[in-house]
Please model this.
Amino acid sequence: MSVTYGYTGKILRVNLTTGKISTDDTLKYKDFIGGEGMAMKIMWDEVPAGTHPFAPENKIVFGTGPFCGTGVPCSGRTNITSLLPSNPFHAVSSSHMGGYFSVELKYAGWDMIVVEGKSPKPVWLRIEDGKVALEDARWIWGKGIFDTMAMIGSQMGKEAQVAAIGQAGENQLNLSVIRTGASHSAGGHGGILGAKNLKAIGVKGTGSVKIAAKPEELMALDKYMMSLIGANNQHVVPKNPQPWAEYTSPSSRWTAKKGLYWGAANPPVETGECYPEDMQSVGLRTYKAVVDLGPVAEKYTVRMGGCAHCPIRCHSQVKIPQLERYGMDPYVANTCMGFYSPFGVMINGTPDLPGQEPGEQSMIAKGLGAKLADDYGMWCNYGQIGRDVLYAHKHGIFKKVLPAEEYASIPWDMLEKGDPAFLVDFYDRVANKKGELWHIADGSYYLAKRWNFGEDYWSDYKYKLWSKLGFPVHHSNEASGQVGALISCFSNRDAQNHSHMNFIAAGLPIDMLKDIAAEEWGSRDAIDDVKNYKPMTAAKAKFVKWSLSRSLLHNSLTLCNWMWPMTTSPLKERKYRGDTGLEAQFYTLVTGIPKSKEDLDLDAERAFTLFRALTVRAMGTADMRKNHDQTTEWVVTAEKGKDGKDIAQFTPGTDRMTQDDMEIGRTMVYKEFGWDEKTGSPTRARLEALGLSDVAQELSSKGLLPA
Amino acid sequence: MDTTKSAPEGESKRSTSSRREFLRLAGAGLAGAFAAAAFGCVSFDTRDGKKVKVWATSSGAIVHDPSRCVGCRRCETACTVRNDGKGSSYISRIKVSRNLNYGVAGVSAAYARADGQLGNFRVVGETCRQCSHPACGEACPVGAISADKTTGARVVDARKCVGCGACQRACPWGIATVDPETEKSTKCLLCGGDPNCVKNCPTGAIKFYPWAEAEALLFGTGGTADAVSGATA
Model:
């Protein structure tokens, strides 16, 4: 095979039914960039509509991109694509994990792994460079993920990176994850590995990812990019006043400051002032432990961790000796939802006990829950699981649906008084599929049906459900009004999109953001002041399309969409401008395939349109506007002010939308993508223009092209 | 103190044991010859007819701080992109990946409290000591490893290297590594005195120290341990 740059050129295919292991050519899919884009093509070509996620015919694709392994900043993510069990139509969706798995896979010589079939007995997949084998997994089946990783590490050597499922995945829970490293989870697809009898994938690589450009060219671009990078979520101003900073933002994740330490490091490490030009403190900027776990966590923080080749460390790694009281080791790591979701299960909170420091008990609960969920491999449906417990509890549903004996055996008193030990009992029951309670892990759509939730479950803002397809808000209407709202309408699970979020929350003054918005999307009215939204505009639609495409682009390259794109920067001398052409510049140097920013955006649009076609095919209807893209009712209902009166939409103080305006927004976004403006479905003309004639042909034969 | 700059030639803070040992072996009469050996690696005959090989001391070495390291491994790609034109962890001359999950000792039943990301989170990177008597260089059957004329780093001459792996087997620290793709040995060459791993560490966990300081940091000072003899044969 000729030398390939960026790409290793090889896809590993594993058929678990037959045990056949074969190699495929990556570059035949190169129009779809990598990772998520290529996986969409494989799912379109190879997994027919109507396939059940847990059927042997379903495939699951572990994807890397051309940047993984090259050291491009924030390029360590793994994209996983398959049918989504928690989606009512089992539509294709992706989950992603950080860590070091994708890089190791590349160094072993593989761009992707496509797994199909079902093994007759539990197995794990062993990849050591070109040597690939299915190994007996009976000795690790039933184990938690931490022990599974260690046991595979003992077989393969300590260098191996492992992606595995826990009991939740083995038991084929809809809400289960595939996890790698200390704390990196891809939510939603764990059960597929369970159904395939595939416990884990271990990989070890002694090879490399070759770079087309001269080393100094890539090093120079890397240096430039590193000058533009901010803190986590590309927040480019600090939270606290700094001698170098013109602006501050209370919600910034640039949390480092003088006198703030990783207190449990030996010796403690001061995060400090972190001047933007100081490349030796970039990794100290984001001190998330004191945000996610509260100020109390400072003295418990060992360090900040994260993913391969990312200088921004967003995973808190803490030592909480109090966890030993629950029979746990004291070390726990996670970020954001990894801590908040299990804590959400504690619906009455976890009040501090006498003698505890303020916030200590909630830190313990978050740490304990993260450890349990990560070992069992439970997913949270982006924080929804706690709100589902809340709904069922508040409405007396547990008492109604659980058999009396089971109900009586659950330590509700612990939940009532806020004892974190409730989580130990809860996760054991759910992950191990005990009684009826485990159905809480069916996901909102199936759970609401099974337990007969009322309409208020969907319509009450408190439960934060975005779509009747069963997923919650994730930077939706509260994130730039229609922009976030519309972004959330196109996915089959929580939107997982940060392209817009990183920009609007960068921390810069709104007037400056509007100027930058005008440069990027044609008009200052692409964004509004927070909670002072104006009706839909064409520039907002452009911003929506760009955000959706860029997210898919990043999941294909793969880059972390929790950092990229670099729309802004911390540099005063650049007037805080970033550079949205960086992805294309890196692509050209790494792969040797010249691409402009517009070329890559078009590739991303092609992949996103294919994703749309996959959803059309899964749902069996071309009318996406009516059947897919709608929100729950609260989103388009005026909220009540403190005085009990409605706050009219598009007046200061509310982020609620109106149905009419959202429909205008949908039309505008459909138009931006060149789709049918009535139904929101891709047209034959647009599909053909994007080189997707085969897709047009199949949709046409099924009567799924818009009239 | 600015520890990121290389020590100027000839300004090492204290004379090293290697030099002392050489002078003891070779006798004062060979002091002039020592000057000739200031760069590179030279063999001499002693008065009683024995062979002695002299290595110029490296200007410095890289030291990794496990309390600051966040395990991002940007050092590894900084190393291999600059020196090999590709990303790799296996041939990186600074070794972080292999200890990332379970520390230097590897997987154990006590992994959850041992070093590594799956334990107490401690990340131990291993760097080339630029040993006074480098086992890699001593082991090389074709003389492909010598002290760089500018930095004193023990460097591999790829034109001479036959990829036999003697250096890899000899290095007590497991640093020298034969690249399976090129069949040439890779080991830390200090990037001409401005190590790229140091420049790319986002937390300042990797520093380039003058050799004597690096030696003290890597092996400790005082006590009975001779830092230099601790390094290699």
